[in-house]
Design goal:
Strand content: 5-15%
CATH class of the largest domain: Alpha Beta
Mean pLDDT: 93
Radius of gyration: 19 Å
Number of strands: 13
Order of helices and strands: HEEEHEHHEHEHEEHEHEHEHEHHEHHH
Helix content: 40-55%
CATH superfamily of the largest domain: Metal-dependent hydrolases
Number of helices: 15
Low-confidence stretches: 1-21
Length: 375
């Protein structure tokens, strides 16, 4: 089902039961306001961080056997209402170059197998074309830039289809420092050269996991907008992965966009943690710099961390420092399912956002800035 169809045909195809209350419909088994449905239908919806799976076992299976992505899986993607997913993973270490080659090649093979229903996104025109054709768009990116051994590697991976690169993950690399590194150092000379080359080819500079100094240095070094594809506000939660008001202001001054996550420990440091706490982060950025610099970077797959196999989730937690402060649950229940963008839209409506503001947050703002960078 494409969201590029008119409202009458959309509702005819999607509503599982008649309207049960004035102004409300049942959609994909849940109840939503007609306003939320209309806003979603009329938006280009982009999630700027949502891997196809959080399970490393499932990821290996999908890349090796694309046919293991079933019709039921596709139905969940269509039900999500999301037109484009940024599917970056955090690959690093001594085999970063080879592992990234395998990652990009695996995605190219997977998308070739599913070409009738999916499309690799290389430009904003591709986002528009995928939406018009009713296809799911996938943006290939990395949550680490350790595979860039020299600036020339930026050109090479861009030619393979990579369009976004986070400068660092949580630790230090040759470019700069991650958010949980012991010292808050900034970009290296090599890092400045990498940013310059990324600007030159039209690859997104992402600082979501970068340390504070590296984040600020990236804004200073870049000639194009720098994105926080998935982050939260430290003014509301003193987690090292959250961004300071200074960083958010500099991002906006340069024309960037910040995608808000729904990961529990990034949203709030104590319980209860609900979707209302997530909405507080949207409100904070809106008040600080304006709604035109807001987007969504959920930082989960369609089903969330808590749905992972228990052994894989435990292994994932073990790979992070104690400062990550994992809790019993990683997800926020109301927005950890395939229809989460509809629930988020309902929340934005509750907070008084206009339709135009919601169109921007759901994807229009990222669409605008990607158009400036991918040239």
């Amino acid at each position: 089902m494409s969201f590029a169809v008119d409202r009458r045909h959309f509702l005819r195809a999607a509503v599982a039961a008649p309207m049960i209350l004035l102004g409300r419909v049942r959609l994909f088994g849940a109840e939503y306001s007609t306003r939320a449905v209309d806003v979603m239908k009329s938006s280009t919806v982009i999630d700027m961080l949502s891997p196809i799976t959080l399970s490393s076992v499932r990821m290996t299976q999908l890349m090796a056997k694309p046919a293991s992505f079933t019709a039921a899986n596709l139905a969940d993607y269509r039900a999500s209402g999301i037109n484009a997913f940024h599917v970056a993973l955090g690959l690093g270490g001594p085999e970063a170059y080879q592992n990234t080659l395998q990652f990009v090649a695996g995605w190219d093979g997977f998308l070739a197998h599913h070409s009738e229903t999916m499309k690799r996104i290389d430009s904003v025109a591709d986002i528009d074309a995928a939406r018009a054709a009713g296809k799911i768009g996938f943006i290939i990116g990395l949550q680490n830039s350790e595979h860039f051994r020299t600036p020339a590697d930026v050109d090479f991976f861009y030619s393979l289809g990579q369009r976004v690169s986070q400068l660092t993950y949580n630790a230090r690399n040759m470019i700069g420092n991650g958010s949980t590194e012991r010292r808050d150092d900034g970009l290296s000379d090599f890092g400045v050269a990498i940013v310059s080359r990324m600007n030159g080819v039209g690859m997104v500079v992402d600082v979501s996991h970068c340390g504070d100094r590296t984040t600020l240095d990236a804004f200073e070094a870049s000639r194009k907008p720098v994105l926080i594809t998935h982050g939260n506000c430290r003014a509301l939660n003193p987690h090292p992965r959250c961004k300071t008001d200074e960083a958010i202001r500099k991002m906006a001054a340069q024309g960037g966009v910040m995608g808000i996550t729904g990961v529990r420990m990034f949203v709030k440091g104590s319980e209860p943690t609900t979707v209302e706490d997530v909405l507080d982060h949207f409100d904070h950025v809106k008040k600080l710099v304006g709604p035109e610099f807001l987007g969504v970077g959920s930082d989960i797959d369609l089903y969330g961390y808590d749905a992972m196999p228990a052994n894989e989730r435990a292994a994932l937690h073990a790979n992070y420092k104690s400062s990550y402060a994992f809790r019993e649950k990683d997800d926020i229940e109301a927005i950890s399912h395939p229809r989460r963008m509809f629930d988020l839209t309902e929340g934005l409506i509750r907070r008084g956002y206009t339709d135009a503001e919601m169109h921007g947050i759901l994807g229009g703002n990222f669409h605008r800035v990607l158009g400036r960078i991918w040239v």
